[in-house]
Amino acid sequence: MVGSASIPEAAAIRLSGLTGDAAQKICGHGLPNLERAAFSDDDRVVLYAEDSLQIDHFAIYKVPIPAPFKTGEGRRTIKVTMAYDPPVRHTRADYLDTGMSFRLIRGCPDDVIRDHFRRRAQVEGKRPELAGRFQCNLEPGPNAREKGTVQTATVTFHREVERYGDEYHLVVRCESGWFGDAGNQAYSIVVEIAQEAEVRLYERLRARVSV
Length: 211
Description:
By secondary structure, the protein is an alpha+beta fold. Helices cover 18% and strands 31% of the residues.
């Protein structure tokens, strides 16, 4: 439902005079669209996973990018939404135990991604940097979205992105807190791929992906 939500146009116009993230603070994620939550369209595809992840580990999902999406015909967006249910306590400081986050990476080899995100012993030194060109600029950024257990962010492309290949990588991380349990954390994640041009994304992606 959060992945389908948007701030209504009337509210956005009313709040347009305010600066920063005022609209998000007032309206939250916006108003859900039940049809968008339940179904894909010809030019908008919803991929999802219900999964679990061991504490202090990460998972990498491959996100297929069809050819028309890469060539720059019309505005194109990728929206990622994640929800999880960590242990909590009644104090406001360190309210959440488990912390989860996601990053959308493009045009980067699998082994480089794994080497960047894996946990390291102190003797190994600092982790290798991941070049900025590989990282999709999701908005809102990580500092704003990672404070909650429901996180959503969008990246919009106006130019061609053909050089980044036909597969992006969604990295989901799970980090321990005060509870100290070495078990698994359940979560759900949704990726919505949409394009303004009529290119029948659904048919192209259905041939490549199974639920």
